[in-house]
Specification:
This protein is low in regular secondary structure. Helix content is 10%, strand content 10%. The chain starts with a helix and ends in a 43-residue tail after the last strand.
């Protein structure tokens, strides 16, 4: 499928399924020259070749003072997002407390997006091992490992280990810094397949 076909299908909704595709042409402003040019290109095979030589026409508007972070339109500065003032020189940083995440991936251990402070919330399901044996070798014992209300193991039968994958296969797309593991009870915590450069053990804390 060529680029023009994809563009046409996206604009008019000519796909065989509408589950993920919304036709765009009906929602565009039909009074603009851009819409007319796009419509003519798609349906009447009319195109415009942009010039490769020449000069850019001068802006017919004049703003004084000159717009620093904006465009001069109708002899007044139209400021870019976050800037204001007669010359668009005043910057107001966004409120960092109001960040909104959109179009995030699913909650999986290989995601490069980390919506939780607790990294374990996006980790894999528990994997059960028989000591010194291979991956998931202890799966048959999973019903013998009770979990608390937060999903953490509270007991392991002799010879059984559990593990989970976190921030795996993300090609270093995770935040640098110090990661803390808190635990209750007695046991041995080990780490594998990771980029940790130093591990410090304490009572109830790693």
């Amino acid at each position: 499928m060529g680029i023009q076909t994809i563009m046409y299908s996206q604009l008019v909704g000519a796909f065989t399924t509408s589950r993920d595709i919304v036709p765009l042409l009906a929602y565009l402003n039909q009074t603009t020259p851009a819409w007319t040019a796009l419509y003519q290109s798609l349906f009447n095979n009319r195109t415009t070749i942009l010039p490769t030589v020449g000069t850019v026409p001068a802006n017919p508007f004049t703003c004084s003072p000159t717009c620093k972070w904006g465009d001069c339109v109708n002899n007044a500065c139209s400021c870019y997002a976050g800037y204001s003032g007669s010359d668009c020189s005043t910057y107001t940083p966004p409120n960092v407390q109001n960040k909104i995440g959109m179009n995030l991936q699913g909650i999986v251990y290989w995601t490069t997006q980390h919506p939780f402070i607790d990294l374990h919330r996006e980790g894999s399901a528990w994997v059960y091992f028989i000591v010194s044996q291979g991956w998931s070798s202890g799966a048959a014992y999973s019903n013998q490992v009770p979990l608390d209300s937060n999903g953490y193991p509270t007991y392991l039968p002799p010879g059984i280990q559990v593990g989970t994958l976190m921030a795996r296969d993300v090609l270093t797309h995770y935040d640098n810094g110090t990661y803390v593991i808190l635990y209750d009870g007695d046991g041995i915590l080990t780490f594998g397949m990771y980029d940790v450069v130093a591990v410090r053990y304490g009572v109830g804390r790693v």
